[in-house]
Amino acid sequence: GVNRARKFSRAGASVKVLSIEFSKELKEMDGVELIEGDAHDEDLLDKLMEGVDLVVVALPTAEQNESVIRLAKKHGALVNLANDAEATEVVVPFEDRVGSVRLAITSEGRSGLVVRDMLRELRDCLSAKKELFSLMDLMYRLKLHMKSIGVDPRTRIRVYHIVYADERFRELVRRGDERKAWERVEEILQGVLDHALS
Q1: Bridge partner residues of 80 (DSSP)
Q2: Which alpha helices (H) appear in 96-129, and where do they start and end?
Q3: pLDDT tens digit string along 77-112?
Q4: Which is it for strands 78-81 and 15-19: parallel, antiparallel or unpaired?
Q5: Angle at 140 between CA 161 and CA 121, to 5 degrees
Q6: Cα 41 to Cα 115: distance, rounded to the nearest angstrom
Q7: What is the DSSP string of 175-189?
Q8: Residue boundaries of the structural domains of the chain
Q9: Which fold has domain 2-92?
Q10: 79: β partners
Q11: Which residue, 178, 192, 171, is CA-closest to 139?
Q12: Could you read off the pLDDT of 106-161 as tens digits, one per residue?
């Protein structure tokens, strides 16, 4: 529950943690309200769920899940069950970043340890693929450029596909020549826009 509390608090959510006891880490965490109580106390749970959007259950067993799910539904809240991946409504994945890319992965409750290794493998693999990041940067630059000049969404999607499939563009990216690759992007875009006007 500590990692989820930290994640949601950092995202700006109002976080309340109900527990009989709290770890040192939770006690020192900013933006988290600690409420001492028992998760078996349905009246307390019912009161705490008023106005809540998401309920996270981080109990060691699933015995309380049914009552928590029932109360959450009563209050219109979604449920994340750390102890039952199949019944959970909201998945909280393991996350990492590689440059401008955010990776998120879950094992659906099978093994968090293995998923962390998988995430590390994905990060290491992607970190070695400089070409993909150049492609991403150029495609994003194209997106911003087309929006800034008022290209309609349908035409933008068409241009993305044409540019991404263009062998000359891809070869320039492979060689690391982003300046010439961008010139090719502009050439393709102009061709599509000229054709649309004719």
Answers
A1: 56
A2: 112-127
A3: 999 998 888 889 999 899 999 998 999 999 988 898
A4: unpaired
A5: 95
A6: 34
A7: TT-HHHHHHHHHHHH
A8: 2-92, 94-128, 130-197
A9: Rossmann fold (3.40.50)
A10: 55
A11: 178
A12: 998 889 899 999 999 999 999 999 999 999 999 999 999 999 999 999 999 999 99
